[in-house]
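W.,

You were right to be curious about this one. When I first looked at the sequence I had no strong expectations either way, so I just let the prediction run and decided to look at it fresh. Below is the sequence, 96 residues in total, followed by the output.
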Amino acid sequence: MTWQRKILAALLVPTALTGWNATAGAQEKPRAIETGKPKQATERPFGGPPNRSPSALGKQCATESATCPLEKPLKLGTECECPGQNGQQVQGKAAK
């Protein structure tokens, strides 16, 4: 073999091998898509399931004398505070 044919063979062999690998990969069977539990329509921001009982959250704090809105909903019966007379905090419980 002349040096020109050796160079040509060295250039063609890698091309032929990569082309052969691509056609071998194309003949594989397509993968079946796994079907598990259906995804829920709504998800929480960090991926957990949605809150199942949103009605069990209170939006107001009820004290003996008054009620006040909560900054964020709490479970019913959870202790909370409302501003009272003279700037004091009055203890209450979360209510609807």
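Here's what jumped out at me. The mean pLDDT is 77. And, maybe more interesting for your project: Residues 16 and 22 are 10 Å apart (CA to CA).

Coffee later to discuss?

I.
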